[in-house]
Amino acid sequence: MYINCHSYHSLRYGTIPLDDLIEKAVACGLTAMALTDINTVTGIYDFITACKNVNIKPIVGIEFRSNSEFRYIGLAQNASGLAEMNRFLTHHNFKDIALPVEAPTFEAVLIIYAFESAPAFLKTNEYIGIRPEEVGKLFGYKGNFDKLVILQPVTFRTKKEYKLHKILRAIDNNILLSKLEPSDIATTSEVMVSQERLIAAYKEYPQILSNTNAVIESCDFQFDFDTPKNKKYYTNSRESDIALLTTLAHQGMNWRYGKENPAALARVEKELKVINELNFSGYFLITWDIIRYSNSRGFLHIGRGSGANSIIAYCLGITDICPIELDLYFERFLNENRKSPPDFDIDWSWQERDIILEYIFNRYGYENVAFCGTNVEFKYRSIFREVGKVFGLPKDELDHLAKNPMRLQQNNSVVKEVQEYGMLLEKYPNQRSMHSCGILISEDPITTYTPLEMPPKGFPIVLFDMHVAESIGFEKFDILSQRGIGHIDDTVKLVAKNRGIRINIRDTKISKNELKANSFLSQGKTIGCFYIESPAMRGLLRRLKCDNYKILVAASSIIRPGVAKSGMMKEYIFRHNHPDQFEYFHKVFEEQLGETYGIMVYQEDVIKIALHYGGLPAADGDILRRAMSGKGRSLTALQKVKDHFFESCAKQGHADALSQEIYRQIESFAGYSFCKAHSASYAVESYQSLYLKVYYPIEFMVAVINNQGGFYRTEVYVHEARMAGATIHNPCVNKSEFTTTLYGDSIYLGFMHLQGLPEKLANAILKERELHGDYVSMEDFCNRVKIGLESLKLLIFIGAFRETGKTKNQLLILASLLFNSSVTDNQMLLLQESVKEYKLPTLERSRFEDAFDEIDLLDFPTSFTVFDLLQSPFRGDVMAKDLILHHKKQVRMLAYLISRKQVPTVRGTMYFGTWIDHEGNYFDTTHFPDNLIQFPFQGGGCYLLLGIVEVDYHFPTVTILKMAKMPFVPDPRYSDAKDHQYITQENIKEDVSRTSRDPYPRAHEINLPRNKMV
């Protein structure tokens, strides 16, 4: 009898989570019900599965609304009916036009209108819904009773949820709760009651009951969850697909391995067999087709993730990881027991990704391609801000609510209510958005399964997420972007332009086995290099003296939280540095994990141990691996396979204590860990970046700057370029572009870095220069570019007119003469003609003024170093390069703060700092919680540091005892305003990163055994 139920997927309207809605239906004795969320089908597939589990007939539909105004309800009689509604809604979403008051003609959809707004004439498939409270209006009704059905909408469960519904409606309308109109909200009766009670309301009208039952009976939506929904074939049949894939695989094998390689041939044949059996040939070929197009455009891509476990992917050029070299298990990617489909993760430069997307949509059709959707949930901070706003709280109180934990918030009745309803909303979907990378390519039109929306990005999205997509049979294609590839790609182009040298960076042999690159790697000289530039990673590389590919692959994985938290990272470092001070506690660990000293650091290691220690088949090992590191990452899932593991180990004759310890290590992965192929992909890309940094450091740093950096701010990469021999120039109207440019070893910072300069103006400067040549004077510039006085002054202060030969002070006087005092940035120079030459006075200017201008306009000085701006001449007793010689000694240093990372511990918050000394070299510090109370960080700038040097496996750090921020010289621009002379120093930046994870256990809490266990 319930043909109009809303879940919380009726965004900012419904209040009932889907599982709770079905639980309520069971309690009310329902045997059939319809899910009709507003303008969406987000929940229908989970709804179908859940209903069948409790023997309720699921009916799927959509409640159509236009700008929150109810139009009608559509119920799908079958799959064709759902497709009809999806196409109808998609059309209106794409055109951004209001839904019509009357439904179009559908062939397999039943339409229900509201009693008060039904059209005079109804089609065969159209009905009028009458609510229980409206039954009294049927007295004297002249209409056709054959067209009346029960309409009992369900939107909330309780009185409290009704208020929650009103809060959601106020949030959606961006109004105060008190300003809601009756038309904005549901009626108080929209709850689910027992079947008997609902039927009793219509006892005088058995015809209505009969009609409603007929509607329910006529809806028979069946969905096959097991059949793949992706595009079936790349060619035109399964047979021709596997034939083409086989041909391409053998061609690629000859390219990768040569013609005589029995191991590669056996692996290729094994994988082809599994791929054919599971009918994934088309998936591989479509991915290959995308890569082929990318290569034809000269784009660089990185294939990573578990797909790199496949030798077929390697032979097709999808990945650059040899699975034989690294002993990667194909079963980790694809096996006969894997229930969820695999996917390839492929990265492009952020500048080229949209071109790849356009190719996919054009090649496979906009009707058949769409992005996965995703639900953006109400988050803790945004909840209190959103809810507080509808209660009428002022901005400062909203800020306080959003930024502080509940225990620190005010204790009044309004705040308590905001907290109460805010917590009810936690994890509720708030709005739909586009998945960052997941693309579906469907055999049938995508609208067979869902309506589509067109977000501002310009690519259509489905109305369900990747988990639902997988559950109904889609294998998504992950088309990602990252700035690290932009670093590599742009460097190669810059080197070709600047030096005339062409680099085949795709040939990974030139970077992976390069001695100088390995030397940089072992010293942690990796800033700018993708995954290996963070302070933590550079410290790890130094602790390991990492100087080869396989150690880098391991390092890329052991730094992950799952491995680090388990204690395996620390143990790996110990065993790497002291290979004679431990025993493998079982021969299987020496045989299978010898490369990583018997430590499980990759997800594949779980498969190896399950296979060779536990006696499980590889496919079952992957089930264990997925249970402990799958999308849910939950220990509950792991528990389900725990008994099977111990049973199998016992059959192998293993001691229970040993099996318990091995399982403890497996279980520790339940947080996060990498598959080995993923780590290897990151290692290859890191090597490519490092090779370019080693041999072409200036071009590389320009590329990093133009791709908007990585872990650090622009200033750090400018410093790296200067240390490599580059000369840094401020933006110049005749030399600079919007991005940073390179002329030989001279770097001209781009206009994009100049704060306060509108992008439109920057582009106008460049366009005019391109059309009519360089600017010969500031007067010439002002006659050719539409600019206001304030923007002109900004260019003067940064030195953009230095080629004129005039000083900044002279240019400022000239600018005032050129412009009427009333001119603003929205007005042009009043007279577009040559200007009288003035004899300008020579004005004194402090040499520090330029540096302070640069801090204001660029965030960092370029004319001087920050050390040159200090009042103190002291530069430290010890330099960073010598710290390793001062183990356990107290040192006094002066350094510039680059970044700090907050880390939780059982004793409170501690920080790790990264600094540059006077010589330009980096070092790291440790700040314990009790020390930070007395000597806290005070923002960016230079600090005097006193601390004890600790050398941990070749890596020195300074444990801080005391620190104090050092003052700059007074800002000479404010010589007449003493209270402003130190304000600019406060604008010096620092990079601060935080983590909200639980504290890692200490060594004695882990107690990883180092002796043989029998």
TrEMBL record:
Residues 987-1014 are annotated as: Disordered. Gene3D superfamilies: 1.10.150.870, Metal-dependent hydrolases (3.20.20.140). GO terms for molecular function: 3'-5' exonuclease activity; DNA-directed DNA polymerase activity. SUPFAM superfamilies: PHP domain-like (SSF89550). It is an enzyme of class 2 (transferase). One of its GO terms (biological process) is DNA replication. Residues 987-1007 have a biased composition (Basic and acidic residues). Its EC number is 2.7.7.7. This is DNA-directed DNA polymerase. It comes from Flavobacterium pygoscelis.
